[in-house]
Amino acid sequence: MMCVVFSTVHEAMKLDLLLAEAGIKHSVVPTPRWLSRSCGVAIALADGEAELAVREAEKHGVAIKGIFPLHAPEAESERVGR
Amino acid sequence: MIYADQAATSWPKPAEVVAAMTAYMQEAGANPGRSGHRLAVEAARRVFLTRCRLAELLGIPDESRVVFVPAATWAINVALYGLLRSGDEVITSSMEHNAVARPLFDLSARGVVVRRVLCDREGRLDPEDVRRAMTDRTRLVVMTHASNVTGTLLPAAEVGRLARERGIAFLLDAAQTAGCVPLDVQELHVDLLALTGHKALLGPQGTGALYIREGLHPTPLVRGGTGSFSHLDSQPEQLPDRHESGTLNGPGLAGLGAALEVIAKRGVDAIRLHEMELADRLLAGLREVPRVRVYGPMRARARVAVVSFNIEGMDPAEVGWRLDEQFGIMVRTGLHCAPWAHRTIGTYPRGTVRISLGYSNTDEEVDRILAAIQILAGGGREGA
């Protein structure tokens, strides 16, 4: 599962609506604390849907802070993100 | 009972508005934009929808530039205190409501130079006078779109164009026009738009908005929790959060969302036409009543359906009281929080009786209002 994080809930709600309209399965979840970038809500999606979500966001000018795995890696490691 | 005080607040509200507010409180009512659970997310979705609908109504491409505030007065304060600094000049009209007049009065004591352009006895503004008042220190023009006393429509597009040509910001107070006069921020060259949810937009009291064009950065009036950037001590830079500290009026905004759907369905053009017809009917009738003096333009096209009048020899407060007591007709009397306007049209300090009509008023109600005024002015028969 992947997790899209945002700066503000406004952007989260915008992508939430766009994904619903595009029929892309997703849920709005509390932002995992290890990922916390700013906004308290994030959008969780299946790995396969993440690219579609990014495309929707880019098409409609929704700013995303990053996309990360939903669950923290078990060992301390370097975080790679956008 | 006839409600003729729509300029104060619209009444009644559409049933959909009441239903949306109740539904919000029962089905969604958590804190929008704060927690991540289902009730909070549902609340946030409804607020977001309202923001989108409002942006669409006003021709605003990026809905994040629409900031929710408790009232138009609040929106005006955010804009004026957020942009004006000591040494700046600001141009305004002589028909402004106290929502503009009082902040400007305060700012003038803090080194802001306020230039007030005089309107004529019908409340009309000549854009040339605004142009003549502009200097290289003019930072902002703030103007009402329509007077809440005389109903006069002021030339927003022309003033907006003049301001834009000189790189001067233009704040339009659309308290009396949003929802009943077509409004497009790009067509009117508006940089900041202040509006209220509870008048012609048919939403509940406690809702309002400020549109802030991209490129303008007013200092926030209020700082606090925004549900974002919580690790920072400083107020976030991003809109709308920058100007939305504290919990929003969730139930109110849900109601406003439903109201905007009603407006979109009816169409602002149709609403405008209906109100012009009511205004024309009222003005034509008042013209025939002896001892009645009407203020503002006599043609509906030049005004909104807000009509001030006086009966010669009668205290406006008494006229208003009798209209309510004897005839069940509700109007507002006095200075209407706009002493500048009354000074402009020559009715200070007595004020006027103000009839203000909206979409829910009818021709039949206008006829009954006219009959009542006929009687009070001594020209008609009681019980007619």
Describe the structure.
The complex is a heterodimer of chains A (82) and B (384). Chain A has 82 residues and is α+β, with helices and mostly antiparallel strands. Helices cover 29% and strands 21% of the residues of chain A. Chain A contains 2 helices and 4 strands; from the N terminus they run E-H-E-E-H-E. Chain A has a 4-stranded antiparallel β-sheet, with helices on one face. Chain A is globular. In chain A, 35% of the residues are buried. Chain B contains 11 helices and 13 strands. Chain B starts with a strand and ends in an 8-residue tail after the last helix. In chain B, the strands form 3 sheets. Chain B has a 7-stranded mixed β-sheet, sandwiched between helices. In chain B, strand 3, helix 4 and strand 4 form a beta-alpha-beta unit. Chain B has helices at 15-28, 38-58, 72-83, 98-108, 127-133, 156-165, 250-266, 268-287, 316-327, 339-345, 363-376; strands at residues 2-3, 66-69, 89-93, 113-117, 138-144, 169-173, 192-196, 208-212, 292-294, 306-311, 329-330, 332-334, 352-356. Chain B is an alpha/beta fold and 384 residues long. The A-B interface holds A 7-14, 16-17, 28-31, 36, 38-42, 61 and B 32-37, 40-41, 44-45, 47-49, 51-52, 62-64, 226-231, 236, 238, 240-241.
Uncertain residue ranges of chain B: none
Measure the end-to-end span of chain A. 17 Å
Provide the residue-averaged pLDDT of chain A: 88
The unreliable regions of chain A are none
**What's the story with the biggest beta sheet of chain B?**
7 strands, mixed
Shape field of chain A: globular
**Protein chains sharing the most extensive interface:** A-B, 21 and 28 residues
The rounded Rg of chain B comes to 21 Å
First-residue to last-residue Cα separation of chain B? 16 Å
